[in-house]
Amino acid sequence: MSIDLNRAILYIDEALLVVDKPAGLPTLPDGYQPDAPCLIGLLKLSFAPLWVVHRLDKDTSGVIVFARSAAAHRQLNTQFEQRQAEKRYHALAHGSPLWEETTVDLPLRPNGDRRHRTVIDPQRGKPASTSLRLLQRFDNYTLLEATPHTGRTHQIRAHLAALGFPIAADALYGPKTSHPPPPIARLALHAYSLQLLHPLSQAQISFQAPCPADFLQAVQQLGPTTTR
User: Fold this and answer.
1) pTM check: above 0.90
2) What is the per-residue pLDDT across 8-32, written as a single tens digit (0 to 9) for each?
3) Can 4 be counted among the known catalytic residues?
4) Catalytic residue among 4, 13, 57, 59
């Protein structure tokens, strides 16, 4: 898999490289397929050196930032650890919640079962918080905005599954079969926006990545918004 740098790069300067990651491309090398294409490997062909600040799952599309210096990397890591950076995702989920907005506070433990999933674990899990806002309702699905306040592995996927609204086409946390089948062939999760402080100027900056064609087509395929 390749990447069109002219379309993918959202911002670049001496400290930052912000990219709109396509779905299907892992952020880092795969431990089982180390020679398979990955986002940082492709970017380093043109922009080395780069430092990883955060990750997106292979099938998640959208905004991701890399540091272009060790100093920027340290500063950005501090922001993410102290929850100063804000990430917003769009997710197409099974079902129709009764709420318009809610916050999920359920502790998570990664690699918690035989399928290596992140699981809810009140005893051994780490604190995890995700705010959810309903954007559109459809007959069998709901379009949601998710804002994670912590950075646990698979946090949004695990929290939505725990609420009974797993993300469409999520092979790991969703149902084995669904009727009707999901209107999209990959995990319906998109990193829509990222807001942070520039590591050099400390000015607040934000970036957005429009939802890709397959995500938009899935929403359109579901038809008009329901009123219930």
Assistant:
1) yes
2) 999 999 999 999 999 999 999 987 7
3) no
4) 57
